[in-house]
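Help!! Second protein's tokens look totally different from the first
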Amino acid sequence: MEIRQLKYFVKLAETLNFSTAAKELFITQSTLSHQILQLENELQQPLFLRNSHEVSLTEAGHTLLPLAKETLHSADNCLLRLEELKTLTGGELNIGVTFSFSGIMAETVMAFLCKYPHVKVNVTQSTMAELITQLENHELDFVMAFKPSVSNPKIDSRILFHHRLAAVVSEHHALAGRESVTLEELQRYDLVMSCRGTQARNVFDAAVSETGYRYRVKVEMNMVYLLFRLLRESNYVTVLSESTVVYERGLKAIPIVDAIIKDKQMEGCVHLLKNAYMKKSSKEFIRMLGESINKFTLSDMNCFASL
């Protein structure tokens, strides 16, 4: 049974006239008769009663008509939905993001929704391990996170930018006017840190493990907005990628300049499942994200060029 045959059947059922139906379908009457006969043979029962004066539906024809119309409607909806995906006037986009990427993602999400208001965007924040599992299970379209130390053969990690660790403080903090800070100096301050397992924390912990430094970690959390609020309203210091707070008002990122972490750059990546279909909405979002990253790299990050 073909969609075309159902279309011919519905038109004939509506007109009950082979000549009229054929004209409205822009086919010959013999083609219409042949296709209806093929459909009846496949279903093994007649759909129309024919004589020299009239055409009428059989019981099977009456039963098939509403089902055929529903099928044609579903087929039309299918084509419409696919066209919506192609033109980004519909569909869903499922994004995974780690702690450090929340600020970077925010501007792009807003810009994407303004440009494509009919695409539903679902953003999940979690650890990289959990997000990669969801990506492998096709629950996410892509993941924004730093490049892991161990590569995954199933994942294509595309680097978007390189950033370093920074001490993040309130704009009113004593460190806010500094151009740089060292790991040794951070021992003097109370720290509020992201939980162990985040990439920035992993890089920090790996670096300080090579020293005898002792830090006053007062708070650990995985809630980025609460962490930022604590920083704004206190003298706490945290250590994150310098990109994490690029769009955050009232916060300053001071690069950590230290021989121990000189080569420990953090590579911000978009992670995709290898050999998987990539939605047009994913391509467009990643393109817009790249533009946003380039924008702040050229402006906000210029102050780090001389370090």
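Here's the second one for comparison:
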Amino acid sequence: MRVHVVSDVHGNSTDLARAGDGADALVCLGDLVLFLDYADHSRGIFPDLFGVENADRIVELRTARRFEEARELAARLWGRLTDADGQEADRRSVVEAAVRKQYAELFAAFPQPTYATYGNVDIPHLWPEYARPGTTVLDGQRAEIGGRVFGFVGGGLRTPMRTPYEVDDETYAAKIAALGEVDVLCSHIPPDVPELCYDTVARRFERGSSALLEAIRVTRPRYALFGHVHQPLAGRMRIGATECVNVGHFAATGKPWVLQW
């Protein structure tokens, strides 16, 4: 059995269409949407709406952890955006229209079968409109793939970034508890281990989950797979009996991580 695993697709539909080649199934750990490419500030919904110079500035502020200033800049830019009638544009409608365009391309690229969960920048209520037969969406749910039980936990925890699919710690922990014992624990964010949460390029810790870490220690899955941290200090680590693996920043590499048995 061969399963390919991707995370942090961020608009890379071209490579996603080939990600299942040679595999019996594809697992996607979320973050399909590209709102702003921190490596190329000309790519994404934000620069499409507000231009590259403003994208440069907001990346600068966020990288410096000046989140309040970044929010103030974004608010000013949204306040200047108008619709076809010259009225102030509705932010939610504009973002959803752009996300829908990306989702149409990305979900069409998924091979069959695909098992997917949400990332923190995804918009879950839109997924049912685009998930085709052969794509199974799971969050706090299990699926059997090739005789092994996979558990899926989507989204992220609350952060100053306020990305679309962040939940409180208790809600996230409840989703993990609902899985019980699994062979492969799949999440978008990592367990709360400093080496797995630190991004060496952004030079900051992303939020990991202590509930994930506890589940790994107690239920001892064979693998814990995740993404979210694009350039991790440690991409792989063993915790007890569990091999913890950051499956990679698919938007940049275009290559899936391979699980075979």
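Reply: Different proteins will give different token patterns, so don't panic. The chain is about 35% helix and 20% strand.
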